[in-house]
Amino acid sequence: MLHLTRRSYTFYLVLIPLILLMLTPVVYSSNLALGIFSAKYFWLYFLALLLIPLLIYQSFAQSNSLNRTDYLLIIFVVYILIQSYVLNNGFSMNKKVTWLLDSVLVYLYIRCIQRLKGGYNVLYFLLLTVFTCVIIAAIAAVLQQAGIISSFNAYYPVTGTFFHPAVLAGFAATVFPLSFYCCFSTLKYGTDDNYLYLLKWLSGITSGIILLIILPIANSRAAFLSLAGGTAYILLNTEKVKTWLSHFNGRKKSLFLAAIFIILIPCSFFIYRLRPASVEGRLLVWKISLQMLKDKPLTGHGIESFKYSYPNYQIAFFKSGKATETERFLSDEVTGTFNEPLQLSCELGITGILIIILLLVSIFKAVPPRVFRENARPVVYRVSITGARGALLAFILFSLFSYPFSLPELTLVFFTLLALANGGGINEPSAPRRKRILYPLFVCLLSAGIISQLPRLYHQLLAYNKWFIAGSSHDPEESRRIYASVFPVLKDNDLYLSAYAGDLSGLKQYDSSIFILGLKKGKTYNDLMCLADNYKAINNNEQAIKYYQEAYYLLPHKFYPLYFIMTITRYSNPAKAKLVARQISDMKIKVQTPEVLAIKNEARSILDL
User: Fold this and answer.
1) Is the separation of the CB atoms in 96 and 406 below 8 Å?
2) Beta-carbon neighbour count of residue 310 at 10 Å?
3) Rounded Cα–Cα distance for residues 372 and 587 (Å)
4) How far apart are CA 196 and CA 360, in angstroms?
5) What homologous superfamily is domain 453-556 in, according to CATH?
6) Burial label, 388 (beta-carbon count in 10 A; 0-12, 13-18, 19+)
7) Nearest-angstrom CA–CA distance, 463 and 457
8) Is the separation of the CB atoms in 288 and 322 below 8 Å?
9) Where in the cell is it found (predicted)?
């Protein structure tokens, strides 16, 4: 078994790959298509490969037994792979499955380190790296706010090192309980170690930056709520608060809980009033998503299936005529439910979400607090266990209003916290001889599955670079040639197919554009409009009207689909044109533009005929 003494060769061999992986939230590439997404995805995968040799070696060298959380995680991974096999008639690892398995590998690696002699030396650097990522993201946010650098989203001026300010806020809010508890613990237990001294200052700076810079700039209600919940968990697990609460009798406890409930009611109303349209829009998404869950409640539609299946459910909902005028007005394109438990239920079914719930329950029940006092362990173990549990609670609360597992960086954060919160190797006995093969067998199979994706990921990396070149080219024909060259590699990538089809449509290769869009699993509003425009260009008005109607039912507040139907039928079917014109005339305007006003005026002119 390895012994990780500081400045030893093995110490750096174990440390460096893990530290590089922990930098995933701040990674970006300007040479890849969708660089803010794809760079994190590829970075996580290729660095996860570096963990495999040591992890396999240690899985055979160590004889520690698996605890309940470890077993549940193995069951979760097996369930995902079986579901993928059944739904796809063979093993098929899409992007989401890939970064989930990469993150599980990181979990196992951290658990391995916790069991090593001197493993706490690596944990110091792991925590320092996580806090450094928050500081880097905050610096990027400040520079974006000042206009010195651009954000990664055209609609938001500040996103930090992410594509959306909500992700920045969620990441910071999740880390805050960990940084807060690190600062609190190092102040309480002393800093007789240089690394502990550095941890004290960096955790304090990180906590201040989150409160004073990131959360005010990002302005995310979900992040404020998750930070409050995670911090409350930390405070409730301090000795002074526990002692204070122990003096409460039944009546005092009831009054205390009633006071909290009374405070929460106006706070909830205030949060709702900040952006009521946002809340009502999410309620609409949840309402439609429940229908999706109802169709496959036990096993779900498959991991990463939500963004492909949901548009069809939204179209069906608005076609049914059951939607209110407000719901039609609030309709939007979404790739997630803004509620991770609901999205996981849609993708993995009730079976999958129950496994995850049991996994989380096992974490908060593992290693009772008395063990912290009974075991003479370095302070970093106390910090990592309690702090990570508070951070996990913050992550869970944030996930109620977001979909963090749809992002590789937040998936990595979750499994890192899961490993840190899982007891730190404290009091883990040796496994019985007959069970010792289970852990190394799982590690080997998981590693083999990840390694098997290496050729695919390598070719994808090269293709993403070419895709970026095609998107940056001012020559449409050159772009088409590049898009065609990477088609065999990216033919399952929905964003690539949309870009390729749009380029073909611009070159008036309408049939080819229709073919490419036909390969997509789920179609966006722009896809449907592109299909309709293509059919209109080749004088297939029947198909054009069909796809314009689909686009309208996907987003029924949009004017262009109905406008094009009106212009197509104006002379061939005047009666239908008048019906559509009446519909346009009665529609509420969501965003008033000269184009929308012109469409309204043209509809009125047809009605006046």
Assistant:
1) yes
2) 24
3) 63
4) 29
5) Tetratricopeptide repeat domain (1.25.40.10)
6) buried
7) 10
8) no
9) Membrane
What does the pLDDT look like over 472-528, one tens digit per residue? 888 888 999 999 999 999 998 999 999 999 999 999 999 999 999 999 988 999 999
Answer yes or no: are the C-beta atoms of 361 and 387 closer than 8 Å: no
| Two tokens, residue 38 | 């794809």
Looking at this protein, which amino acid is placed at residue 98?
T
Q: What's the token pair of residue 499?
A: 């870009």
Tell me the CA distances in angstroms from 285 to 89, 292, 311, 495, one per residue in order.
30, 11, 11, 22
Cβ distance 42 to 155 under 8 Å? no
Answer for the pair 123, 14: CB distance below 8 angstroms, yes or no.
no
Contact 238, 372 (CB under 8 A): no
Question: How far apart are the C-alpha atoms of 587 and 581, rounded to whole Å?
Answer: 10
Report CA 234 to chain centroid distance, whole Å: 25
- 381 in helix, strand or coil? helix
Question: What residues of the chain score a pLDDT lower than 70?
Answer: 1-8, 63-64, 88-93, 188-194, 241-276, 367-379, 424-435, 609
Residue pair 347/301 in contact (Cβ under 8 Å)? The answer is: yes
- Cα separation, 386 vs 369, in Å, equals 9
Which part of the chain has CATH 1.25.40.10? Answer: 453-556
Token couple for 246: 């122990």
Phi and psi, residue 430, nearest 5°:
-70, 145
Burial string for 423-449 (b: 16+ CB within 10 Å, else e) reads bbbbebeebeeeebebbbebbeebbeb
